[in-house]
Amino acid sequence: MPRSFLVKKHFNASKKPNYSELEGPTVFISPYVLKALPVPVIPEVLSPVSYSPITVWTASNLPLSPLPSDLSPISGYPSSLSDTSSSKDHSGSESPRSDEDDRTQSSKLSDGEKFQCGLCNKSYSTYSGLVKHKQLHCDAQTRKSFSCKYCEKEYVSLGALKMHIRTHTLPCVCKMCGKAFSRPWLLQGHIRTHTGEKPFSCPHCSRAFADRSNLRAHLQTHSDVKKYQCKNCSKTFSRMSLLHKHEESGCCVAH
DNA sequence: CTGGGGACGGGGCCC
DNA sequence: AGGGCCCCGTCCCCA
């Protein structure tokens, strides 16, 4: 499954966004453009978008700290522990349990890791580490998700939601054509379409590409056995889209 | 119709 | 915690 589809899409994905209709803070990030253009550049600091007070979670109203009392696992636990949380957080996938179960499970473990998440069994040396984990992952999961106010997408973590919201606000604007992008590096890639810069060269031929993904796809054309293979006829393709076309056309085997 | 290139989206990882 | 980058992917267009 493509990672882009880890979230539900409720709109026609084939439509490209109408950038001009989307509003939000803008930031111009390309030093190249800054140097090249006589146009006045106003680098605005990317600030949180002000959202209307509705019930869905957004980047600005997420219950980061403290959690609502009905969600907070804090009661009954020491609050003065330093935050020396253990290894990186990891989203669990087990079946949800109640908050009370969580508190019961968040009990003392071994010497190094004393607090355990009741949902994914991940352990932390401090209670605050456990709280941070639960806020960003497991509590979010048991509460379904963080929902975007601009669309109906849902995310299991705050960071993912924040990143997604940028796809609505599109804060990175090309000074040459006005096109807007969600992330600075997307804008940088776009600027190469203006400058003609192609920093990604094929080691097998003289071609160069502005986009690393396009080079990767191109490299497939040099391979005898390509990455995407038809299950029916074993024919291989350089791109998944070509494989899909092949399969949809009926392949060479009757279904 | 097929294969390939161009442009771009988005989640995850790393610093 | 946030930004940059990587990787994987899609869509559109054209030869």
Write the layout of secondary structure elements.
Layout: H1 31-36, H2 99-105, E1 115-116, E2 123-124, H3 127-142, E3 146-147, E4 154-155, H4 158-169, E5 172-173, E6 180-181, H5 184-195, E7 200-201, E8 208-209, H6 212-221, E9 228-229, E10 236-237, H7 240-248
Antiparallel strand pairs: 1-2, 3-4, 5-6, 7-8, 9-10
This protein binds a DNA duplex (15 and 15 nucleotides) through helix 4, helix 5, helix 6 and helix 7.
Name its key features.
255 residues; 28% helix; extended; two-stranded antiparallel sheet; alpha+beta; Double Stranded RNA Binding Domain; DNA-binding; single chain
What does this structure look like?
This protein is α+β, with helices and mostly antiparallel strands and 255 residues long. Among the domains are: 169-223, Classic Zinc Finger (Double Stranded RNA Binding Domain, 2-Layer Sandwich); 226-254, no CATH class. Helices cover 28% and strands 8% of the residues. It is built from seven helices and ten strands. It has a two-stranded antiparallel sheet. The chain binds a DNA duplex (15 and 15 nucleotides) through helix 4, helix 5, helix 6 and helix 7. Residues 86-109 have a biased composition (Basic and acidic residues). Belongs to the snail C2H2-type zinc-finger protein family. This is Zinc finger protein SNAI2.
